[in-house]
Amino acid sequence: MLAPGRRWEPLAPLLLLLSGMLRPPGLAAFNLDEEKLTVYSGPESSYFGYAVDFHHYAGAVSVLVGAPKANTTQPDIQEGGAVYYCPWPAAECKQIPFDTTNNRKIKVNSTREPIEFKSNQWFGATVKAHKGKVVACAPLYHWRTLKATPEKDPVGTCYVAIQNFSAYAEYSPCRNSNADPEGQGFCQAGFSLDFYKNGDLIVGGPGSFYWQGQVITTSIADIITDYSFKDILRKLTREKQTGVAPPIYDDNYLGYSVAAGEFTGDLEQELVAGVPRGAQNFGYVSIINSTDLTFIQNFTGEQMASYFGYTVAVSDVNSDGLDDILVGAPLFMEREFESKPKEVGQVYLYLQESAFYFRDAQILSGTEVFGRFGSAIAHLGDLNQDGYNDIAIGAPFAGEDRRGKVLIYNGHRNGLNANPSQVLNGAWASQSMPAGFGFTLRGDSDIDKNDYPDLIVGAFGAGKVAVYRARPVVTVDAQLMLHPMTVNPDNKTCQLPGSMIMVACFTVRICVAFEGQSISDKIALQAELQLDSLKQKGAVKRTLFFDYHQSHHFFPIVIERQKQLHCRDFVVYLRDETEFRDKLSPISVSLNYSLDESIFVDDLAVKPILNYYQESTVREQAYILVDCGEDNMCIPDLKLSATPDKYQLIIGEENCVMLIINPRNDGEGAYEAELHIKIPPEADYTGVERNHKALRVLSCDYKMENETRMVVCDLGNPMVAGTNFSTGIRFSVQHFENADFSIKFELQVKSSNKVKPTSNLVNLEINISAVAQVQIIGVSRPPQIVLPLHNWEPKDEPTKEEDVGPLVEHIYELYNIGPSAINETLLHVGWPASSQLEPLLYILHIQTHGPLQCQTSSAINILQIKFAIPQDTPELTAFLHNSTIPHYVGRRDVTIVEPQRKSYAKILNCTNVKCLIISCTVGQLERGKSATLKIRSRLWVQTFLQRNNYQYTLSSNVSFEVKKMPYKVQPAKHPEGSIAIRTSIIWATPNVSFVIPLWVIILAILLGLLVLAILTLALWKCGFFDRARPPQDDMADREQLTNDKTTDA
Fold it and tell me: Is the N or the C terminus of the chain less surrounded, counting Cβ atoms within 10 Å?
């Protein structure tokens, strides 16, 4: 009834409290058969599968299913709930007629009104069976406590069925006429149920006494004996109930879950009760004495609101003869570092070591957020027949689409395995609500009589129940023997079939036996024998089967009866030593086997399965005899030294490096010896030095090992004792973008020997530097201007560029000689723009070529004078593109930093006139590349006409500073420099302007010619043109003449 100032609510929502949130993963299968499962279906929206149990009667096992929202044939009752009987093998489920009556009524004020209310009573929310007796409860059954008022209380009620459902009796321990507010009006008896092993009943009523809760025990015999449908308020003589506690225990929910077990050493079972909201909402589980219902011991949860005690179960997990306790806390939240807590759920296992003494809890945690791991816990019995009991744990809202999961944990001597051996995944998708697969579980019964316990899983949201049967477990004893264990390559005693080739060989023997509970006498295995199995796929296998010339062989093994040893021999031969390199590592021989299920033809029976906890692979090893002494073990002494042919690299140059490497072996033979060179990212392997007689030529390959670039060189197999030589390995170093101040090569000799397989590690470091020589040159076009200008008149308001004055262009080129690149340079030009507010060089346009961006300190061409940009001449184009045109850029044209000539002209520059500043940023310039700036201006002639005959030199100043190079490595000092480009202003000598008549010019020419003729004649007359000859010449001429005459005669 309703208490003053207290809002009472039934615990119905608590039944679904854990059905609110959700999410997903999965695992391997062991011996619950997921293919031949039996599925029962109930009416839609009936919550068929909310409670399940096995029912044993007359040697047969069937399935009981609660459907707490099902409709029945009861008159005027809506969704009263039902329990279904489902025979096995699969057949149609039928309602068990526990109660076929309407609400009982009483006479109130001359009218008959109901005294009980069975609609929505959730009959079938709990179902338990024990030795043919079945109890099902309706925790939301309501009772009219005070007859004079219409108020009703959810006291709960249960029904007992005996003799294969031929007789029924009702049991409602909280139904009474007590109207006290702290009484049992909200008891909800039957919220949880269990049996003692003697058959007595345990009933949980978590709503009694302001939801303090209580547990009630009684004898089934007392309920059945002298039962009368009319005796509504009957009390049983052997009934026991926990009483009311102080108010601090209000809202604790004692009896939310119950179980039975023995924990005091007196052979009398105690009951275990979950109190999920006790201990200030941390929750606890109590062990309660079955004789007087006194509290013996508590286990308290570790996290508030985790609902520790939501479910409890008892099982002897480690098979030590003592019962152990399992507790579910499905709302437990896992905290990871600073992240938001995740609700995953936990299960706690308390192993009993002696009476009243338990080990610290073993904790199993869920892995899926909102999966509600621990909502159900079921004792399975010994599922895999290994001598230890196993446990099933439900996570009803985990998995894909919130379909639910059941996780199977196998027991061992120290508790449960930390990881599940099998995960069952729900097959039914969410409809109006999640399927809830795993919300209820029941095990420890053998439904198919194969001596292995089976499992029932309920999925009430989908209205389904699945029965999983356990498969018989086959344990195989497989042995592998090799003879001899050490193979001598020189002892070639076997002749290959069909040839005259002799080979070294050895024998592989396999022996197999099996055993298992409920296994037929004959089984078959599919076997595979692999030779040299540790070699990677594609590698050369050193041994082959004598008859098949393959390194693997598939074959069947048929064993006729249990524990019978089946043996078989195979001959294996060793390949010729020239066909493989590895002579030291063992030759691994492995036998893999699996169960051949094709011989099991029974459609109903589940097929056996191999033991999950036993390896299905057996391995043995043989060794190749090597020349390493009596112990057949070579111990090398490998040493390595190396030097580079240069210790300094300059970025931008070719940078070819040769490493001079000296490996040696001062010990026994090193097999599969290799030189490993780890290449830095900046380098590329180019080859082995072949042109130096003192350096041995090795066989080297470029490889990638774990994303590391390597050069691997063969040093011999074996690299014999006393080996000592030098070799040269060449590299090209070009990739400097992310290089530090040095590059490092890492070298080591490695072998396959077991002892001392490697040499010392050598690290070679080569320094890197960045060097760039940068030059700036410039030219003025024209270099000088002569004033005054011919046929030019000044304009008061010039509109065209010709109105201003003659064209003056200054061109600057920043050139990177190299070898390294530069990628950020500041260029500044100081331009003589005006003096005392009078313009000097008026800029019209600024043109750039190359990676150059400029801005001016003030606007240019503010008068908006129209100008045209002429096409560059070929000579200027060549200059802009860094070509050498001597006849264009002459020595006097290009201004380089050189001594100034003496000049009497006044220099106008940024020290004495107002300058416009042009600031430019130059981008990346590789070696041999340049950037050019061209300033197109007009000389403001009118300014200079006012200073007639004064000589001036207009000078622009340009400077540069390299700020950065495109590498991590930067020079200690970046290049910088400056020059001045000058344009001279000179004045022509004043002229008298008159016209000379033509006749004067002709007369002057004729007079000149006449004077020349007179002068020539006078000189001739004076003998000026006669030549004086020496006497010897005259005599020689006469002798020559005489000789000529004699000859003619």
Answer: C
Same domain flag for 211 and 225: yes
Q: Do 240 and 296 belong to one domain?
A: yes
Mean pLDDT of the 833-843 span:
91
From CA 450, how far away is CA 436, in angstroms rounded? 29
* Percent of the chain with pLDDT strictly greater than 90: 65
Q: Which one of 416, 449, 468 terminates a domain?
A: 468
SS3 letters for 614-650? Answer: CCCEEEEEEEECCCCCCCCCCCCCEEEEEEECCCEEE
Q: Are residues 366 and 458 in the same domain?
A: yes
Query: Domain with 706 in it: what CATH number?
Result: 2.60.40.1510
Per-residue pLDDT band at 1042 (split at 50, 70, 90)? very low
Distance CA 398, CA 343 (A): 11
Token representation of residue 177: 């006429």
Using an 8 Å Cβ cutoff, are 102 and 74 in contact?
yes
| Structure tokens given for 567 | 């043996």
C-alpha closest to that of 839 among 821, 826, 858, 853: 858
Q: Alpha carbon of 430 to those of 66, 374, 396: distances in Å? A: 20, 20, 12
pLDDT band for position 995 (50/70/90)? low
pTM for this model (two decimals) = 0.66
Question: Which domain covers residue 517, as residue numbers?
Answer: 475-624
Exposure on the CB side of residue 976, measured as CA atoms within 13 A? 10
Is the bond preceding residue 247 a cis peptide, omega within 30 degrees? no
Domain match, 429 and 514 both: no
Question: How many domains does the chain fold into?
Answer: 4
Residues 154 and 210 in one domain: yes
State the average pLDDT over residues 59-78: 95
Q: Determine the average pLDDT of the residues in 397-410.
A: 94
Q: Between the CA of residue 258 and those of 36, 202, 358, 744, what are the distances in Å? A: 33, 7, 19, 71
- Checking if the pLDDT of 121 tops 50, the result is yes
Asked whether the predicted pLDDT for residue 424 surpasses 60, the reply is yes
pLDDT of residue 108: 80
